[in-house]
Design a protein that fits this description.
This protein is an all-alpha fold and about 200 residues long. It has one domain (about 5-185). Helix content is about 70%, strand content about 0%. The chain is built from six helices and no strands. Helix 3 runs antiparallel to helix 4 (about 110-140) and helix 5 packs antiparallel against helix 6 (about 170-185). The longest helix is centred in the N-terminal third of the chain and has 28 residues, at about 45-75. The chain is globular. The protein starts with 6 loop residues before the first helix and ends in a 9-residue tail after the last helix.
């Protein structure tokens, strides 16, 4: 195993930490005045590509996080939760981008009530998955280094905020913290066990 096996995922995690809040702030500034006013009125724009880039990079980071847990710690308890976040991210980010592309030919704006329901359900779904990730990693914290416990705790807190929906904007701060922790985990050299 090389020392830099997880260099690119570490850089990608830093990229997500910066781009996630930027993409949401850009979306809020240029499309509505607040999260509660946000409507799924699809249209292809720079924010569509930015949003897709954040999604694809997040998927890449979570995939390599699973790989790291397997390769370095033989830890598989969090697989279901992590594959769930990959699936949800794929549907959300890629689906949104495809709807933006379709908007070139069709008017795909959803009524404001449906937009609020979809947005709320999506945030709650991500919250439940984040809670599941936090719980499964905390359940196995004896088998993992300390930074995984910190990652799990912050992920759990983030999930609780998402599930409350009202506190979900705090995720704009917490997700970058979580992805920076993942970057630290990726960029830290693995501990070697000497066999005598």
């Amino acid at each position: 195993m090389k020392n830099n096996d997880y260099l690119l995922p570490g850089i990608a995690a830093i990229f997500v930490a910066v781009l996630f809040p930027v993409s949401w702030i850009y979306l809020l500034v240029f499309s509505s005045s607040s999260i509660s006013d946000l409507q799924f009125g699809f249209h292809l724009s720079i924010s569509s590509f930015l949003f897709l880039l954040v999604g694809l990079t997040s998927i890449y980071v979570y995939y390599y996080f699973i790989k790291l847990l397997h390769d370095h710690h033989n830890f598989r308890r969090a697989d279901f939760a992590l594959w769930s976040i990959i699936a949800a991210s794929s549907i959300f980010y890629i689906g949104s981008f495809l709807m933006d592309v379709v908007s070139l030919w069709l008017d795909v704006a959803l009524p404001i009530t449906i937009s609020h329901w979809i947005f709320g359900a999506t945030v709650i779904m991500f919250g439940i998955i984040d809670i599941l990730i936090g719980v499964t990693l905390l359940a196995g914290h004896e088998d993992l280094p300390a930074q995984y416990k910190m990652f799990a705790i912050i992920n759990l807190i983030m999930g609780v905020f998402e599930v409350t929906l009202i506190m979900s904007p705090i995720v704009l701060i917490l997700l970058p913290v979580v992805t920076i922790l993942i970057a630290i985990i990726f960029l830290k050299k693995p501990e070697m066990i000497e066999i005598v």
